[in-house]
Design goal:
Number of helices: 16
Largest sheet: 5 strands, mixed
Low-confidence stretches: none
Strand content: 5-15%
Shape: elongated
Radius of gyration: 30 Å
Helix content: 55-70%
Number of strands: 5
Distance between the termini: 45 Å
CATH topology of one domain: Heat Shock Protein 90
Order of helices and strands: HHHHHHHHHHHHHHEHEEHEE
Amino acid sequence: MAYISFQKNDYFGAQEIGLQALKYLNQNDTSQYASISSNYNTLGRSTYHLKRYSEANEFYDKAIIYAKHPSDLSEYLNNKGKAYEEAGLYNQALNTYSESIKNTTRNSSSYARTLNNIALTRWLQNPKYNPLTDFFTALKIRQKTNDINGLNSSYARLSDYYLSKNVDSSIFFAKQMLLITENTKSSKDKLIALRKLSLLAEKKDAKIYLRRYLTLLDSLDIANNDAKNQFALIRFQSEEHKSNFLLAQNENIKKRNNIIQLLFVAVVLVALLVFGYLLYRKRKRQLQQEKALEVKNTELKYVKKVHDRVANKVYQVISEVENIPELDKDQILDKLDAIYEISRDISYEDISPAQEDFSLKLTAMLSAYKSAQVNIDCQGNESSLWQNVTETSKAEIFLVLRELMTNMDKHSEASVVKLQIWQEEELINIHYHDDGLGMVEEFKFNNGLKNTVSRINSICGSITFEPKNKNGLDIQISFPTF
């Protein structure tokens, strides 16, 4: 009941019930250590949310004493470090986080949680410190392990970091946080995300986010009050039943014990039957969903492969035939043969590309779209720029730029295309501009552009289209090197 009260944001009620529970727990019985440590942790978390950080750490210390499993020990140490962090005791927080991370497995959700907190504390301690590497490492781990609550925390920290550096990025991660709360159903986290967006978004959108924030805040207050009243009534009824029970015990203890035993057996049997049935239904539904998702993902994978590996490659060859007069027949046949091989092996997993100079590969691709009618100028495409970029990121960026060039050649009627590539700290920035028709306001993305956005998101990057430019189209791409 203490944990349920805590989940319902009734922190005083959780403290009261948790302290009462200690009377019924035997601290000399090792079989009860898990319950004892969990109860002390709930008391610590309730006290932490009441902003009494020193008292919270006293409860965490007791939880640590009774913790036997490394994952529990890591969690309690992490919670203790968080209390130090909120109290502004950053050195103590970092020391505690270091002990916590030793009890985790690398690339686990627990490891990502503590790594994210270490980076945050170092940044709070020294605003000049760059926490992005650890932030993004934690984010990737949480994405891989599908740690929904962890993803919510990562997006919140990234939004906070970019608040004073890049408002667009801060808004992007706040929106990701809001999207995650639809899965976690966490009203508290949704409130935080809506509050960020109401302060950061443009005036029109900010009003919408603010209304949603106030509506959710009112409903949350009502729900919390209902929960508090409900548990107050339960506690009152429990005391009343306890008194009646003691009186009945003196009158007919044998009859009571027999009834309790029969009821207990019946309840256990019914519970087991219900639990087994629900577990069977849940597993069956899960298997159906997994199968459907597997089919859908397979279809999407092949659609993207056909589009990126075949369609765009064919269009690139067409552009070369149109724009390079000296291209001989053997070269064309070689390129068509390569496309045939790609088509034949489309169902196989991608083979890692041979080590080659990415800047030269990019230049060759861009040159295929250059003609007497279209001038392409690329600045900053140096070999040194791409040295620290992962092969996965380079492969995705190559496909993204080829898609943009194909769309330009098909639709934009542009005569000048400019690409600027540069690095800022651990981010690679690409600015694309053409003087074509741009995008109409009601423009809808085709599969190629949808894949473009998906690919940028897959490498933790961002892409911004500016279709309202009267002088053509501007696109800004940014992604981390790691």
